[in-house]
Design brief:
By secondary structure, this protein is α+β, with helices and mostly antiparallel strands. Helix content is about 60%, strand content about 10%.
Length: about 725
């Protein structure tokens, strides 16, 4: 691999415009395809195979014309007045909304008295939409909102909830994200001491993002893209695109300072650092691709899309960077540094790389290795403190209940709770099948309502259960053998009592008691049931996925470093970083500390798994780049403690710069308007901060010092069976 990459670097340096024009052409082709086939992203979350999803699918089969998404328009009369005083105003609004493209039917409060609260001051209109929830077009939502805005007169409060609210992030790159990139540029300039050199990683990242995002949207007619997926792709593309090219450029500059010519330095940088980049990228790709084991379609796509972005960033780095180096030539350095390089080239290449003992990084490594136990204890205390809140971790999905207080959906939720009870916001939908068919006697006695007779009996039986406030037979097939019952609990959608009711309605023995027959079946869905199923599915998948990632970590590191204790130390360090990341998320986004979250609530169910996959890959990057330097020195000197200090001095500067860049880029997404993206950005920023500076740059050298030569021990039988893999490429001769 190293030799092939060496040849690629040489070709790109000698033929830069061929490589550059190739990438430009690819962006143009993919961009054209994306424009031709682009489809709106969706915020809907479904998990095929769950009980709630099966019930939804069955309800759609039984009643294909019943509509898909739904929402409510909630009204509250001003003090001293009743909803009836605004009958004309509300009826006119319902008529206008029904004419909006994408709206199926609108039932205003005056059609059914149950739509008006007992106090007469709060009411709602039920809106049935033609598209599924999460896929409602912006045109439909804005059309409904325009009609509502016009109705907010004479003191009437009008709020909306459900699928009438757009849940798709309004922007991918905002002020915070741009600020993160600017901070990255400053760090690059300080690290590389050249504006030209600092600009190249930014260009690399932008090219990687353009290729991966254009490729993703060119497939959007074939796949349903979740709204979070492209934002996650941009986040990853920016971070690793910058970092990967930084590692290569830093190696290139080191080789020039060691006396190599520009062409040879470029090819060697790609053959060594480029090889490490490919190896590091492979770990992230595997970790994100492994999300498919969770067997959740939107997460599989999210993982594969992120993996593709990482792969593209690595390929761009090893091909475009040497091409850009070929174009800029000596301008990659300042005039002062050029003189140093020319003097080094006059002396000729140096075989042994040495680190300055006067550098901050060497001195920091010396402090840690001189006081390993104190350093270890301090780092662990900080990490444990950050991790403590993880004990209270709660998983959930974005709902109106946890929306920001000033939003219309939260106001609608609170008004419905005030007027109709907490459970009204999370009605359960019970699909009933295998009912007795309509008899001629029932047709004679009940006429068009005969098909509801058997369904009503089941509804009345369900109404007698604990925690049930109201039941309503909502729909029935013509022969009366199947139908839908709406069940409104007394408890809120996320309460344990609601979960217990769902469990009871699904229990086959309870169903027999409710229906009086072993043949009649009940299946339960609705927002509360769907959320409960998704949370359960993802919570159960989390340990399994973590086990896969931890196992992968051990295998990769054992092969890479031919050691047992180094991989164990690295994996335990990764788990510490994960705990600190989750603990910080709980404190900020669940408890509401520091005011970063407008609407504190449960952590979105899929965030932990996604974050683990990303953090694993990036943590392994830092482990490879830092410990490989120590391993290289130990292989030459067999002095374990000196290898730690020297290796740390060689690798820590670029790891520090890379980590600061990663943290800056991810932290920039905290300002995003979407709470899910905010939490992912914040979690990864904290996770990388902890992993880079406390785990890799404090705990790692401290533990390596304490282990001494034992750190590199491996059983002879295992050593013979392991493949030989060089992270930094094959040894090159002069």
């Amino acid at each position: 691999m190293g030799k092939k990459l060496h040849a690629l670097g040489l070709f790109a340096f000698n033929n830069p415009w061929k490589i550059i024009s190739g990438w430009v052409l690819l962006i143009a082709i993919l961009g054209f395809l994306a424009v031709q086939f682009i489809q709106p992203t969706s915020s809907s979350i479904s998990i095929p195979g769950t009980d709630a999803q099966k019930a939804i699918d069955r309800a759609n089969e039984l009643f294909p014309n019943s509509g898909k998404g739904s929402g409510r328009i909630v009204f509250k009369a001003p003090d001293g007045k009743k909803i009836s005083d605004f009958k004309t105003q509300i009826t006119d609004l319902a008529t206008k909304v029904s004419k909006v493209d994408g709206v199926g039917t609108v039932a205003d409060p005056f059609i059914d008295p149950s739509f008006i609260s007992e106090s007469g001051t709060i009411a709602y209109a039920q809106v049935q939409l033609k598209d599924a929830g999460g896929s409602v077009t912006e045109t439909t939502i804005s059309g409904v909102q325009s009609a509502i805005d016009a109705a907010r007169v004479d003191g009437l409060q009008v709020e909306t909830g459900g699928d009438l609210i757009t849940k798709v992030p309004g922007e991918i790159l905002g002020i915070g994200e741009v600020a993160g990139v600017l901070i990255a540029l400053v760090v690059l300039f300080i690290t590389l001491d050249s504006l030209v050199a600092a600009g190249m990683p930014i260009i690399t990242a932008l090219v990687a993002i353009a290729v991966s995002m254009a490729g993703l949207f060119s497939l959007s007619k074939l796949i349903s893209i979740n709204a979070t997926t492209p934002v996650l792709g941009v986040m990853l593309g920016l971070a690793v695109g910058i970092d990967y090219s930084l590692f290569i450029i830093n190696k290139y500059r080191r080789l020039l300072r060691d006396g190599y010519g520009y062409k040879e330095a470029a090819s060697r940088a790609i053959g060594t650092a480029g090889n490490a980049v490919i190896f590091a990228a492979l770990t992230v790709v595997i970790a994100l691709s492994a999300l498919s084991i969770v067997n959740v379609p939107f997460m599989t796509l999210m993982g594969l899309s992120g993996a593709a972005t990482i792969a593209v960033a690595a390929i761009v780095s090893v091909s475009l960077v040497p091409a850009m180096l070929g174009v800029v030539g000596r301008r990659v350095f300042t005039k002062k540094t050029r003189a140093i390089v020319e003097a080094a080239q006059a002396r000729g290449p140096q075989a042994v790389h040495k680190v300055s003992q006067k550098s901050f990084w060497y001195k920091w490594g010396k402090v840690i290795t001189s006081h390993p136990i104190i350093s270890l204890v301090i780092a662990l205390v900080i990490i444990v403190t950050l991790a403590l809140p993880v004990r209270e971790l709660q998983l959930g999905l974005p709902t109106d209940q946890y929306a920001a207080a000033q939003t219309t959906q939260k106001k609608a939720y609170d008004l419905l709770t005030e007027g109709f009870g907490a459970g009204f916001n999370g009605p359960l939908t019970v699909v009933v099948e295998e009912l007795p068919a309509v008899t001629d006697a029932n047709k004679t006695a009940f006429g068009p309502y005969a098909k509801f007779v058997q369904l009503k009996k089941v509804a009345d039986s369900i109404a007698k259960l604990d925690n049930v406030k109201q039941t309503l037979p909502a729909a029935a097939v013509d022969n009366g053998t199947a139908g839908i019952i709406q069940v409104i609990p007394n408890s809120a959608p996320s309460d344990q009592a609601t979960k217990d009711l769902i469990k009871k309605l699904r229990d086959t023995s309870e169903q027999k008691t409710i229906t009086g027959s072993s043949g009649i079946t009940l299946s339960v869905t609705g927002a509360a049931a769907l959320q409960d199923d998704i949370n359960t599915k993802l919570s159960n998948a989390l340990p399994e996925y973590l086990l896969v990632v931890v196992g992968l970590s051990l295998i990769l590191l054992i092969v890479a470093f031919r050691s047992i204790l180094v991989p164990l130390k690295a994996t335990i360090g990764f788990l510490l970083s994960v705990l600190a990341m989750f603990g910080s998320m709980v404190a900020v986004f669940q408890w509401g500390w520091f005011g970063l979250s407008d609407a504190p609530g449960p952590i979105v169910s899929f965030i932990p798994i996604i974050s683990i996959g990303i953090l694993f890959g990036l943590a392994m990057d830092y482990e490879f780049f830092l410990v490989s330097s120590m391993h290289e020195v130990f292989a030459q000197t067999k002095n374990a403690k000196e290898a730690v200090v020297t290796g740390f001095g060689v690798g820590s500067k670029v790891v520090t710069a890379a980590a600061i860049i990663m943290v800056s880029v991810f932290a920039g997404f905290i300002s995003n308007h979407d709470a899910t993206i905010q939490a992912i950005g914040f979690g990864l920023a904290v996770g990388i901060l902890v992993d880079a500076f406390l785990v890799r740059m404090t705990i790692v050298p401290a533990v390596m010092t304490l282990l001494d030569k034992a750190a590199w021990w491996i059983p002879k039988w295992l050593d013979k069976r392991l493949p030989h893999v060089s992270i930094e490429g094959e040894e090159e001769t002069h």
